[in-house]
Write a structure and sequence with these properties.
Blueprint lengths: L1 H4 L1 E2 L2 E2 L2 E2 L10 E2 L12 H27 L16 H19 L2 H5 L7 H6 L2
Parallel strand pairs: 3-4
Antiparallel strand pairs: 1-2
Length: about 120
Amino acid sequence: MLEAGLLVQGVRYCVFGDKAYLLSPWVQVPVPSVAGVVLGDEEEGFNVDMASVRVAVEWGYKEVKQVFPALDYKRKMKINECPVGLLYKVAVLLWNVRCCTYAGQTSEFFDCPAPSAERYLSLP
């Protein structure tokens, strides 16, 4: 599904994950460092640049948990005891609507303005 979803108008995009993911044409990962082998400047630069971008994307998770602290309350948020997935999806939806109005740390970092709340809520 990911591979098909990342083909947009004939252009193949990819996502970047941490080193826990396997390298594939649609999932890129840091260049691995092997014991005794020093990475070149280009590989090291790639890892540093992509690490900062990956961290920037994770800010969104942090911000949702800060605004909706109940989502991080481990004693209450247990599978089969409450609708954890649904609560998180609703929190992210509300957070995204807020970001449409006030912008967020991630959109500012990437210099990518958010759509209006009306446009965001009307997307399929």
